[in-house]
Amino acid sequence: MALISNDLINEIRRSVDIVDVISNYLPLTQKGKNFFGVCPFHDDTNPSMSVSKEKQIYTCFSCGATGNVFKFVMDYENISFVEAVKLVADNAGISINIGNNYKQKVNKNLEPLYKMYELSEMLYQNNINTVQGKEAIEYLKKRDIDESIIKEFGIGLSLHKRDVLTKLFLSKNYSYDVMLKSGLITKNDYGYIDMYQDRIMFPLWDVSGRIVGFSGRIYKGDGNFKYINTKETEIFKKGEILYNYHRAKDEARRLNTVIIMEGFMDVIRAYTIGVKNVVATMGTAVTKEHVTLLKRMAKNIILLFDGDAAGAKATYTCANELIKVGIVPKIVRLEENLDPDEYIKKYGKEKFLGKLTHPINVMDFKLSYLKKERDLTSNDDMSKYINDVLKELVNIEDEILFELTIKKITEESHLSEELLRKKVNDLKSNDDKKEENVVIKSEKVKKVTNKYTQAEENLIYYMLKSPEVIKIYDRKITYMPTDVYRFLARDISYFYKQYHLINVADFMTFLRDDKEKLDALSHILSLPLKEDFTLEEINDYINAIRDYNINFEQQRLKTKMREITDPIEKAKIAQKIIELKVKGD
Q1: Contact yes or no for 178/119 (Cβ under 8 A)
Q2: What are the DSSP E strand ranges found in 370-437?
Q3: How many CB atoms within 10 Å of residue 455?
Q4: What is the secondary structure of 203-237 as a DSSP string?
Q5: Which of 143, 145, 242, 346 has the greatest CB tally within 10 Å of its CB?
Q6: Rounded distance, CA 221 to CA 204, Å?
Q7: 202 — phi, psi (to 5°)?
């Protein structure tokens, strides 16, 4: 299929309102003529992303993320530019066909790894549906996993043979080096063999729904390793993956709630009773990448980890990571040290759903957690407990939750409410001073942009505002010193000549997914420059750029003159240097 034309893409963009589209992903609040929300592209605690209805672009004043509706959807959904266009078009009721040619862009060097996992998945699924898979099917059924769930989650089987997958890869002309990189093949004293043998295979997906790993479970007897997970590879980073994200995101957005569990079996079990807004951390600590993904899914987050002591510790740690970025989760704890899989099988759907509909607030959980193994009749333990709780309250911005917790610890400790509040304020004051020192220190080491680069940036900024500045650029600038700015300025000029107008949102569409130019454009649009300009200012930028070019050419000619011996040629170069100096003066 031919590329979608810029005209059609711009028609799609103009048919939607960026404010409406972004509001479907995160709450926006109007302040003046713009709308503000918490930026989903960095660890944002205060609403720092501005969405302009007039300009149809968004800009984060903290991380610098900028773009039009397609760029937002593209980055938020982790999809390609054309897929983002298709998604926006579908929402606008505009029918376009992108065919099968536009999948998520991947590094060509990594493509063999993705293909190998696709092949593996097909092999494993085929195996489980043969006579050799009968015992594995029976095992899964005993664990209340029926054929519909097996199909939904792509559960397969690796056979009790040493090199089935190895031979398949060889038949597809994959080298041993690439096989080893995939993590699916290993090498021992006897040669190259399959990593997984005689195990039930559970695929692991990245955020786009591509298979990047497996977890293989024994189903006969008791082996040393109940589960074997794919080692980290170039495409499988546990800290960047939430199990089931690609399935759960739409349901989570619809319900505005996402449930986080520890293991993939917990997620699968939840699915069997219709709970689909659920993901798992795969047993790893929650990372910044996880938090970014969670912020994109829903405003409300429920932590439902295993009911044992390790699960309580993981809940506490995860809650703290979320609170750091302004997300206050709710908590569900399970009795008898059960994990969600075990709890659902033992107590059934209704009791589990009851747990989900009555989560506790994060501070009630922390009060309980911080009391563990402490004797509150001891003044020493009570003092440590109260101080720990007060440190937790420093990060709580929810006023009602703050007040309820203060009241509870006042009753527990028999200390005055005034004393407890003063202690919290003192802790906050100390944190503010630390933050202030960090800011001052960072300001001292901030790199100052040189005047030539600043001139380039300012000129491009006003080229995006005015056709008049574009025309001045066309007449007076032949060369911009910085590569990306040179190409960006040329694109602006070309765009204006093509469409006889300059519209930032449409120009972003024109750049499509050229990351380097879009990043440069984002930086320039985030500059704290005034909207209006004078011709005198524009000429100053032009002159600064021309001065750079003259100085650069002078240095180049001087270097050349030192390298030649012919006196006549030296004289010619010297004359050119003099002419450039006069021109510069």
Answers
A1: no
A2: none
A3: 23
A4: EEE-TTS-EEEEEEE--SS--S-SEEEPPP-SS--
A5: 242
A6: 24
A7: -110, 115
Q: Are residues 208 and 261 in the same domain?
A: no
The helix/strand/coil state of 201 is strand
Domain boundary among 316, 343, 362: 362
The 10s digit of each residue's pLDDT in 23-46 is 888 889 999 999 999 888 877 778
Q: What is the mean pLDDT of the chain?
A: 87
Which amino acid belongs to residue 313? K
For residue 29, give the CATH number of its domain. Answer: 3.90.580.10
Task: Report, in angstroms and rounded to the nearest whole number, the Rg of the chain calculated over CA atoms.
Answer: 30
Kindly tell me if the per-residue pLDDT of 578 is higher than 80: no
- pLDDT at residue 8 is higher than 80: yes
105: in domain: no
Question: Residue 339 sits in which domain range?
Answer: 242-362
Q: Distance (Å, rounded) from C-alpha 486 to C-alpha 499? A: 20
| 102 in any annotated domain | no
Sign of CA dihedral 155, 156, 160, 162: negative
Cβ atoms of residues 92 and 10 within 8 Å = no
One DSSP character per residue, 285-333 reads PP-HHHHHHHHHH-SEEEE---SSHHHHHHHHHHHHHHHHTT---EE--
Among 208-222, 265-279, 545-559, name the one with the lowest average pLDDT. 545-559
Where residue 121 sits, what CATH number does that domain have? 3.90.980.10
In a domain, 368, yes or no: no
Cα 436 from Cα 431, distance rounded (Å): 9
Asked if residues 481 and 452 have their Cβ atoms less than 8 Å apart, the reply is yes
User: What tokens were used for 440?
Assistant: 């001052």
Nearest Cα to 13, choosing from 60, 66, 73? 73
Confidence band for 440, pLDDT divided at 50, 70 and 90? very low
pLDDT average, residue stretch 365-393: 91
Q: How far is CA 333 from CA 242, 308, 329, in A?
A: 21, 9, 13
Domains contained in the chain, number: 5
What mean pLDDT is predicted for residues 160-168? 94
> 279, 244 in Cβ contact below 8 A?
yes
| pLDDT tens profile 454-484 | 999 999 999 999 999 999 999 988 788 888 9
pLDDT at 186: 94
Q: What's the farthest any 2 CA atoms get from each other in the chain?
A: 99
